[in-house]
Amino acid sequence: MHLSRLFQRSVRMFGARPALAQGKAPALTYLELDRRVRALAHWLQAGLGLRPGDRVALAMKNSVEYAEAMLAIWHARLCAVPINCKLHPTETAYVLEDSQARLCLVQGDGADELRQASARGRDLQIVDVGSQQWLSAGVGTPAPDATVIDGGHELAWLFYTSGTTGKPKGVKLSHANLVAMAMNFQCDMLAIDETDVLIHAAPMSHGSGLYGVPYWMRGGLQLVPDSGGFDESELFSLLGHYERASFFAAPTMITRMLQHAGNADPALPGLRCIFAGGAPFYVEDIKAAVRCFGPRIAQMYGQGETPMTISALPAHVIGQAVALRDDDLLASVGYAQTSVDIDIVDEQGRPLPPGEVGEVTVRSPTVMQGYWRNDEASAQALAGGALQTGDVGLIDDRGLLHLKDRSKDVIISGGTNIYPREVEEVLLRHPRVREVSVIGAPDPEWGESVVAVVVALEPVGADELNALCLACMARFKRPKRYVFMDSLPKNATGKVLKGELKKRCAVEPMPS
Ligand code: AMP
Description:
Radius of gyration: 23 Å
Number of helices: 17
Largest sheet: 9 strands, mixed
Bound molecules: adenosine monophosphate
CATH topology of the largest domain: Rossmann fold
Distance between the termini: 54 Å
């Protein structure tokens, strides 16, 4: 099934229902949204000359234009390339170059920086969704119904993640992948209907945007906060205004909401469910969240390569476990989602019995089609026909999946992945840095924070290293702490023992 066909089905089924709104402003109905989507699709095809399969990048904060653009891209049979809007322009330019995007939609003053950073100036069009061009496009000639020959196999979403090499890789997700994700959501996270509301408080370039799909499939309302992101008091106010409202949140966002609520009971009769995921959600934090918000917290475990879909714990199961003090269940990431077959395997890929720790592998119609223009990495990740997640865990005798650790050394800070190698490459550009190893250290606010362990040839200041990072990459990736050592601990084959470094940096307050 193609998402454009599914959206047209929703327009026929729910035409007069509210579909998309900003803040507390009146919503566009499904029929009104469809008119805009068709006009934008016509502009993409006839106005900009884009052809089926062309990539359109979205380098924007959350906005109603984001949701419109996603639907218009699919109606025009193009492929969306979501880009984290916090990336440095050179990092965005890398994604534009690798994906060979023909159009990049931006918002506000990002356009000029991006034009400068992008080497492909001539064949890449950059359009600001606040421009007259976009405004006119949204009210122009509507495109006819999308003719789709290819069913669900076309690419819908090219999501850039990073592998162990630290270089971002494009995860190829088809329409069929996203339809399967939406059906799993309905079965395993929350059964929704046309009275449900999704608030995009987390980035639409990641999970929140993807969860828009099940909402419009079921005739629900998607809502974008005026701030274009996460603001605790605004979110509380929206939850007081709307009924049956839910939102996706990284565990750190939930912790910040708890701090904001303090000892007050936020009541929030309009809150239906918080979908937590994307990073470890610790037992004590889950309990505090249930105490504050009631049994309205669900959890999912997924990854870009099988979006939002590996395992899940619905809200009533978490609520019950808190009541029964079943900490073991709370420490797990739940049961396999409906379409998912999970196997825990050893280093040779042989399935392990319950209780034994190995790599989590997944077979599911949500699993990606491979990496964009990277056959070697695709073959590795999909070896034997199953997705090798790079996560290590076990399935217990109740069928609950417990994640032990990530075999990749990805740092998850505030729900966003940071890849050590990328930061190491930048620090190694400093002439007085001899060796460096970047690790994640536990952080009560962010989950993990970036720590750089540096071996210097001659004394070098943390402020100099910080300035170098700021000049070369997004702010959120730069180390929060520098630890200087005479040498790095290594194993016999010369590999840095990151586990050892993590232990030392977690216990000893190092000079920075
Ligand atoms: P990404 O591809 O950016 O979505 O990152 C996916 C990775 O985040 C997974 O492979 C896990 O290591 C981690 N992750 C996602 N959800 C959870 C969760 N609920 N609990 C613990 N780790 C998670």
